[in-house]
Each structure stands twice: as structure tokens, then as C-alpha cells.
């Protein structure tokens, strides 16, 4: 047996026998890797537990995007609102939501200045408590401001004139509308006893701008009263040759101008008034300067939309002289729909209230 002979160097005799060489990663790197797999889950679990405990001064916001939403003010939009989106408006990035249509009942009522205050108050309460009546344009109301302002759930806008208030006023339900602004215009000079046989006071137009509470959209109401003795009863639908008729034509021209201004700033415009001119006769004759001829390009009456097959608003003469008008452009494009009209009975005045149901979109 041949034995392998080692070198004769002294150090060779003392050196231990060499082991086979490791070809993998360094031992320290391997150890660190193993410790990472064992310890890291424990650290992660501890950190997650710590995050789950609410800290007194620390809050955490998820990085996920938040879906924008429309914020509605339950009390309706206000002039002082700055940080809350009004109904129908959207937070940036949200898809706008179209407000639902609303139904509004608009009434016109000449109270007749010769009735008593108690009778006027009874009529006012009766009309405003009726379901489906939300806005009222009053004429001959100069003696009845106290009765009109005492209606629960309603607000009445009267206007100073002379030593008291003017004859035109407008009321509305406060849960449905809030007042934005109100103004009054003198649109024609009256006729004195010395000037004519049928005297009357200066002619006025009351205008209120209202915001519908659920949407903030604007409704403007225009209310007026034309003078008496302007229509020829012997030739219905034509002017009576009086100074009153001339002033009435001036008044209608001014009303058309006021309507045009309101139309530029409001989503909806409605008109009320005693026009002292029969709707049936005016539709048939369409006399120059008459209600239809003067306002027809701007407004449409409920009589035009729904017909004149309805009881008279002025029983003593059998005529329909009390009107509710809607903005023609809004009717044409569907923002306003004239849905129903009704003449009410049982009131103390020589006039009957005219009530028209409108759908506002």
C-alpha cells in the first residue's frame, strides 16, 4: 500500500486538514435574510396594531379618492352662503343633478277697496289657506295691509305710497320662497276729477323677485292694475275713447318693458293683475296697444293656453278681466307649463280670484 508522504515543512504538520470551500452567499448575508423572514411579520403586525389604536393628536386619511357629492342646504340657499353648494350645483368633479320640477299656484285677486277690513281679512285668509295657492297678486289693497301681513306662513310685500301704502301688493308662502328683492314703479299718471269723467290714481307696478328654497332658482312676479273705463262695451275688445284708455296703453307699454328686464335675470316670470279688458274680446279683436298686442311677445295668459271657457272673474259685467301671465320664452322651451286655471267664488269683492297652476322646471 503506497502511503501519501506530506511535505517536510514544519508548519504543514501543525495545519489542520482543510474543509471543502462554500460556493453560496456569504454566511452573514444568509443569516440576515433568514432573520428578515422570521422577524418582519412580527414587526408588521405590531405596527398594524399600533395604527389601529386611535391616537389623540394623529389622524390618518385613506389615499383612495373620495366620490364628490352634492351638498344641499336644508334651509334653502342664502345670500351669505359661501362654502355650501346650492341645490342644482355640484362640487367640482361631480355630475350636476337637475332639480325636480315644482308646482306653484299663482292667484290674482282684486279685493275691492269698498269692502270692510274684516271682510278683506276673511277673504285673504280664505284664499291663502287654499291648497294649491302659493303666490297672490293683490289689487285695491291700500286699506288692507294689516290683514295681508298677518297671514300665518305667508309674507306680504307692500309698498309705501303717499301717506300709506299703494294698492298693489304680493304675497307668497314662506316655506316655498324667500324674498330676494322688491320694487315698485309708477308707470302712468292718474286722472283727476277736473281732467276726466272717470278719475283714478297713478298706476303702479309691483315686482318681487323670489328664490325657490329647494333650488335657489328665481321667480319674478309682476303685479299691476289698469284703470277702469277703458274697454268699449258696445264694441268689446276695442278701446273706449277716454283719457283712461290712453293711460292704460302707456301702462301696458311700461309693463312690457319691466317684463323684458325681469326675463333677463329670472328663470321664471309670472304676472298678475286686473286689466279691465276682457280676455275673450281681446283674443278676438287683438286691438292695437291692448293686452295681447302689447304683452303677447313677452308673456302668455292662461286664457291663451287653456281657453276662455271658464266663469267670469268680474260677474257684474260678465267679463274675464283678471289675468295670470307666464313668461312666453319659458313656456316655449318647457321651463313653465300652464296646467290648470280656476275662478273661485264666495268672496266679498265684486271680483273673483283667478288661480292658475304652473309647473316650473
TrEMBL record:
Domain Endonuclease/exonuclease/phosphatase: 108-331
Pfam families hit by this protein: Exo_endo_phos (PF03372)
Residues forming coiled coils: none
Residue numbers spanned by region Disordered: 1-22, 53-94
Basic and acidic residues composition bias: residue spans: 66-83
Protein name: Endonuclease/exonuclease/phosphatase domain-containing protein
Cross-referenced InterPro entries: Endo/exonu/phosph_ase_sf, Endo/exonuclease/phosphatase
Source superkingdom: Bacteria
SUPFAM superfamilies xrefs: DNase I-like
